[in-house]
């Protein structure tokens, strides 16, 4: 599932390529991806412009010139591709937004969605999300952590605790902090809590720099998106050598989550 770095990569790319271009055509191939009827959705957005694309947690928010918003969550397996009908990938597209010849394809929205919302509806939809990692202050993080007793892995992927982190980057953050992903939050020393906090921004910034781990191109000739796959520390590297100490990376399953870690340097 796309996490903060993947959605941030999408956000930055889209803000450079689709802003203030009129939506000339809307194709809906899966009504369940919407929160309105098909014609209602089309009538509301056709002819309007996307004035800005924001990210909140694992969502993208498309601000429309009409004053309404499109809220996107790609969920598991969702992708986007920007191109034309000539280079459109041979994949099922649930939704296509056209800007003249340019097409924004929403692919693999099996559980994902693109909802049309007012400002108040958008605020309500996102109200349960925790703070953004890049905006979270140290004191606030330490205070929030004090109230938690469970293991780090399920805590870090809990969107009400911190927004935007999932399976991949929770493992990478724990590695950076030298903490076992199943350590109890209540057992951490003050020093370890600070190490954990100090690991968020370096890991997530590095992932954004490498284009995240989603290895499907956003446009024809895209060589950057998904490069983090080649630069992960421990995620999906079971049996390989730890890049820090040379130990063997292992996998552990806990509470429906899989975690990858180095038992030698993540105690």
Automatic annotation (TrEMBL):
**UniProt superkingdom:** Bacteria
Q: Which residues form the Formamidopyrimidine-DNA glycosylase catalytic domain?
A: 2-100
Statement: the UniProt record of this protein carries the keyword Heme = no
Q: State the EC number(s).
A: 3.2.2.23, 4.2.99.18
Cofactor names: Zn(2+)
User: Where in this chain does the record put each FPG-type domain?
Assistant: 233-267
Its recorded reaction(s) are:
Hydrolysis of DNA containing ring-opened 7-methylguanine residues, releasing 2,6-diamino-4-hydroxy-5-(N-methyl)formamidopyrimidine; 2'-deoxyribonucleotide-(2'-deoxyribose 5'-phosphate)-2'-deoxyribonucleotide-DNA = a 3'-end 2'-deoxyribonucleotide-(2,3-dehydro-2,3-deoxyribose 5'-phosphate)-DNA + a 5'-end 5'-phospho-2'-deoxyribonucleoside-DNA + H(+)
Q: Which UniProt keywords apply?
A: DNA damage, DNA repair, DNA-binding, Glycosidase, Hydrolase, Lyase, Metal-binding, Multifunctional enzyme, Zinc, Zinc-finger
Identify the Gene3D superfamilies for this entry.
1.10.8.50, MutM-like, N-terminal
What molecular function terms (GO) are annotated for this protein?
Answer: oxidized purine nucleobase lesion DNA N-glycosylase activity
> What InterPro entries would the database entry show?
FPG_cat (IPR012319), FPG_Glyclase (IPR020629), FPG_N (IPR035937), H2TH_FPG (IPR015886), Ribosomal_uS13-like_H2TH (IPR010979), Znf_DNA_glyclase/AP_lyase (IPR000214), Znf_FPG/IleRS (IPR010663)
Q: Name one Pfam family in it.
A: Fapy_DNA_glyco
Oligomer status and interactors: Monomer.
Q: Which family does it belong to?
A: Belongs to the FPG family.
Supply the name of the protein.
Answer: Formamidopyrimidine-DNA glycosylase
């Amino acid at each position: 599932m796309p996490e903060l770095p993947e959605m941030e990569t999408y956000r930055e790319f889209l803000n450079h390529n689709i802003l203030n271009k009129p939506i000339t055509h809307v194709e809906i191939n899966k009504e369940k991806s919407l929160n309105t009827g098909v014609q209602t959705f089309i009538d509301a957005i056709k002819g309007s412009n996307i004035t800005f694309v924001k990210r909140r947690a694992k969502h993208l928010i498309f601000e429309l010139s009409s004053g309404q918003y499109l809220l996107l969550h790609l969920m598991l397996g969702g992708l986007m591709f920007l191109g034309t009908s000539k280079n459109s990938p041979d994949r099922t597209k649930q939704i296509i937004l056209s800007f003249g010849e340019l097409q924004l394809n929403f692919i693999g929205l099996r559980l994902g969605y693109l909802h049309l919302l007012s400002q108040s509806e958008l605020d309500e939809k996102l109200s349960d999300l925790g703070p953004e990692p890049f905006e979270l202050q140290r004191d606030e993080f330490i205070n929030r952590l004090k109230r938690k007793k469970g293991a780090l892995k399920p805590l870090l992927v809990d969107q009400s605790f911190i927004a935007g982190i999932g399976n991949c980057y929770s493992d990478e953050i724990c590695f950076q902090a030298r903490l076992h992903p199943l350590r109890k939050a209540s057992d951490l020393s003050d020093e370890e809590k600070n190490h954990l906090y100090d690991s968020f921004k370096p890991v997530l910034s590095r992932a954004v720099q490498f284009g995240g781990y989603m290895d499907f191109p956003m446009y024809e000739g895209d060589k950057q998106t998904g490069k983090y796959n080649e630069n992960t520390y421990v995620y999906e590297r079971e049996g390989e050598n730890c890049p820090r100490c040379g130990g063997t990376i292992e996998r552990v399953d806990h509470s429906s989550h899989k975690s990858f870690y180095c038992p030698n340097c993540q105690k």
